Amino acid sequence: MPIMMPASDQLVLNRRDAIVADLRAIVPGEGVISSAAEMLPYESDALTAYRQPPMVVVLPETTEQVSRVLKYCFDNGIKVVPRGSGTSLSGGALPLEDAVLLGLSKFKRIREIDFDNRVVVTEPGVTNLAISQAVAHAGFYYAPDPSSQIACSIGGNIAENSGGVHCLKYGMTTNNVLGCELVLMSGEILRIGGKTAESAGYDLMGIITGSEGLLGVVTEVTVRILRKPETARALLVGFPQVEAAGECVARIIGAGIIPGGMEMMDKPAIHAAEAFVHADYPLDVEALLIIELDGSSIEVDELIKRVEAIALGCGSTTCRISGSEAERDLFWAGRKAAFPAVGRISPDYLCMDGTIPRGALPRALSRIRDLSEKYGLGVANVFHAGDGNLHPLILYDANKPGEMDKAEAFGAEILCCCVELGGVLTGEHGVGIEKRDLMPYMFSEADLNQQQRLKCAFDARGLLNPGKVFPTLHRCAELGRVHVHGGKLAFPDLPRF
Amino acid sequence: MQIRDAADVEAAVRAAIAGEQPLEIRGHGSKQSIGHAMATNAVLDVSALNAVTCYEPNELIITVQAGAPLDDVLSLIDSKNQEFAFEPMDTAVLLGARSGRGTVGGMIGAGLAGPRRIKAGGARDHLLGAHAVSGFGDSFKAGGRVVKNVTGYDLCKLLAGSWGTLAVMTEVTLKVMPKAETERTLVLRGLDDVTANRAMTAALGSPYDVSGAAHAPHPALRAAAQGLAQGLAQGLAQGSARGALAGLASTGQAATLLRLEGIAASVSHRATALAAELASFGTAELIGGAESAALWRDIRDVMPFAADGALGAWPVWRIVCPPACGGAFGQALARDTGGEVIYDWGGGLLWAALPPATDAHATMLRRRLAAIGGHATLLRADEGLRRTVDVFHPQAKGVAALAERVRQSFDPKSILNRGRLVRTSIS
């Protein structure tokens, strides 16, 4: 079933030529793209199943231009969709027919590296990896490391509160960002936080992070950087049953050990990855854990022994310990290539992203197996096991009629299962348009109303990235009513777009 | 009204909205003297919401009602060798309350983290989920029970540190962490504040995983020692937590403290390596185990400025600034006011006890902070002073306006803790 988006504003579309001309006056030269052919690369993000050419693409270069573009759109009632590198997996940057697509790709300068305060001040279009590379010579790095870090921008990381394999120990984006320069939809430029550990007043940075481009446009970011640990080593541990691997994860955490990363793959994912990168993964196991320990070399050596003992106690059938950086990289190579590897064994796949309590892992897996049979579609599982973040990859063929719909229904059932097991709809990819209509499964009407009221505090006219995250649009005025009386709805039957 | 559950809180808030009667939200009242006097005479007491709903040590999470006594919760998780990694401070030492450390809701509402903030984050980083009642009288939930969650806006971040002005929390889910097996503290002696700041910067920029970096100039240590003597005389000393820092005063030198935590072999190795790296700052002494833990409790609770100590009558500021600026800033502040300063977070957090002045030096302090990008909260002051000085740092106009719109989006009629954050002519 196609995802419904907010109705296009015909009056805005009628004025398209004038709007393009006005925007060219604000952002000169090649900063405004309006031809259909040139806008083609912008018609989707990494959730490529959905495509929509924007009304016009604007690529400003300065904060002042961003401010003027937003103020112009605000004054003229024009919607705006912000975009970083376009690597969102949930459709967060999917354009709207009647909206300006505001790309931040020209904001790619690192403004300041301050080792004494252990921060980097950067523009939002800089890639995640580039920040680490810029400080690597001094032994520092930026901790959150989404798999797309070579391409994804730090501004997009803030929009999505991105994680990665190291976030179990070092936190997500929200735990590593200290401040930003933010442009509101009205064009107002604000500075939130800075080089301090905490900012004064309400934690506005905390709410902007993960807000999926609905609250404001970030034009500068201050992130904290960490000194690299002395050493890192990894274990590659195979289990004859998935449940045993789940038990091993629980026991490691229960023993007070927080690994730098703890990832899990099931049999189909192991086989696909091995065929793709030849990481020498064992092929006779049902589940594979990659456990990385980092810190001082003495600590890592000791923890490796403890983890190895726990793994044996859980019935591991293979356990290899990296003896060199090259070997550690090889352990990870398969995991990092798991998504493209699965792409080779199936014409299409749908990558899901839910989180469950770690202890519910075996139940979640058995449920996914049952659903796989119900829908007649294969599935390969790749998990951030340490924090319960699941990435089932649902295998399907878009050329077979009805199969994409089946895959989507399968995915929705998995996410609902995550919520039933005490988890959430998305652990790191965001809600976007992909999981938007599932939000009422996790949140009551009152929960969603409170979130949308907050949206109104930033964007009272609802012009910034509408149609994302929330399954229905509200006018701020109607949300502002104080309900003194009246019962709560047991389950909201929200109108959809 | 007797509050027994979240539905009661909802009913109480709705009644308050209907009657346009603002409410002071109170747990144990341990932090009542922080902030401006609230423009209300009605109290919503949530201390009866004190149950531990669910504790799953293997999942590293605990769910408790907001009124649960923090001391009880800390004992419970301690029994499984776990803790709140952000080291919530015990404000009773500084404020002079005698009622224990307050409630879990108060801990989140205040969001005051201790020394490990530099490594483990603050209260906001450990709040995974909350149930709360907004100023619309609606129960809502924020976040969830898992560490990795980007479903919708992260409302928990706003609740932490909001001083009860956005919603009445009824239940919270917090991340707990395993306690380190061992800890040791390196002590460097006799450094001036600026040099100590440099030593802490070097330590925090090293690969040795420092989990606490603090500096107590000698006058502050002396104040701690005097406070201890005074406290002992009054029979108020509270066990070993009082006096560890005072013990360092005997040498007559400032003390710069660097904490290392982890498994024993690793801590020894890192201590040796860090001492070598910092050799140009002097020879480091090593303090281990319980004594080290007591030192960091004293730093966390700002023991040198204890309410029953030598500087108990002085107003105390909590100043947050870029860490590398702390030493020079604090040194000048102490020199120019005759006050005393101790440093935590590697220089990023300053506690300043300043001699009485009409505005508690607020104007000068905040003017200087503007130059380096920091902010200051007047954490301890009598009510008269709090009536004339902005307790919380005034924000830039646009940010303040946004913050006010955010507040209104939770509580349009300003029913909850009205007037606590922003000084008005009537408060």
Question: Mind explaining what this structure looks like?
Answer:
The complex is a heterodimer of chains A (497) and B (427). By secondary structure, chain A is α+β, with helices and mostly antiparallel strands. Among the domains of chain A are: 10-103, Uridine Diphospho-n-acetylenolpyruvylglucosamine Reductase, domain 2; 110-227, Uridine Diphospho-n-acetylenolpyruvylglucosamine Reductase, domain 3, CATH 3.30.465; 230-345, Alpha-Beta Plaits. Chain A has 18 helices and 19 strands. Chain B has 427 residues and is an alpha+beta fold. Chain B has 16 helices and 17 strands. At the A-B interface, strand 9, helix 8, helix 9, helix 11 and helix 17 of A face helix 1, strand 7, helix 7, strand 9 and helix 11 of B. Chain A: InterPro entries: FAD-bd_oxidored_4_C, FAD-bd_PCMH, FAD-bd_PCMH-like_sf, FAD-bd_PCMH_sub2, FAD-linked_Oxase-like_C, FAD-linked_OxidoTrans_Type4, Oxid_FAD_bind_N, Vanillyl_alc_oxidase_C-sub2. Chain A: Its cofactor is FAD. Chain A: One of its GO terms (molecular function) is FAD binding. Chain A: It comes from Nitrobacter hamburgensis (strain DSM 10229 / NCIMB 13809 / X14).
Estimate the mean pLDDT confidence of chain B: 94
Largest sheet of chain A: 8 strands, antiparallel
The neighbouring-strand order within the major sheet of chain B is 3-4-8-6-7
Distance between the termini of chain B: 26 Å
The fraction of residues in strands of chain A falls at: 15-25%
Content of β-strand of chain B: 15-25%
Helix count from the secondary structure assignment of chain B: 16
Q: Supply the helix-strand structural class of chain B.
A: alpha+beta
Structural class of chain A: alpha+beta
CATH topology of the domain at 110-227 in chain A: Uridine Diphospho-n-acetylenolpyruvylglucosamine Reductase, domain 3
Radius of gyration of chain A, rounded? 23 Å
Q: If you compute it from the alpha carbons, what radius of gyration of chain B comes out, rounded to the nearest whole angstrom? A: 21 Å
Distance linking N and C termini of chain A: 13 Å
Number of strands of chain B: 17
- The general outline of chain A is globular
As residue ranges, the low-confidence spans of chain B are: 237-241
Unreliable runs of chain A: 485-495
* Residues in helices of chain A, as a percent range: 25-40%
